[in-house]
Amino acid sequence: MSSPETDPLALEQQVCFALVVAARSVVALYKPLLEPMGLTHPQYLVMLALWQRAPLSVKDLSGRLQLDPGTLSPLLKRLEAQGLLVRARDTADERLLSVSLTPAGVALRSDAERIPEAVVQRLGMKVADLRELHTTLTGFISRTHAIDSEQDR
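RE: above sequence
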């Protein structure tokens, strides 16, 4: 049996494993910060997109979050039930469903503004290191999307 350093199938050497564990760890890191706001991590991502730009069509929001509409729809339904957003037919194009923030959704942003700094503090990492990680991950995502696009041809 080979050592983990030389075994091409060693779990510890797999990028996919490191990414999955990192993703779960990030969600766990955010959980206690988001619970007082009544949000899950996926709901927080929806709110981030809408705080940046609203209203958005469900299609545009789905694209920004890189989620299929079937995954996004239940998130929107729960956020709407919490009174944070409203879904309505677009007045310019009845085929589109538009997502807008309610006053409560807009107001929640002030509570959320403390989260990025709290995450940095909990991680104990330098902001520059986190920016570098973000750049690396963004490049990784772009490359995987390029591969997906080539395979779709």
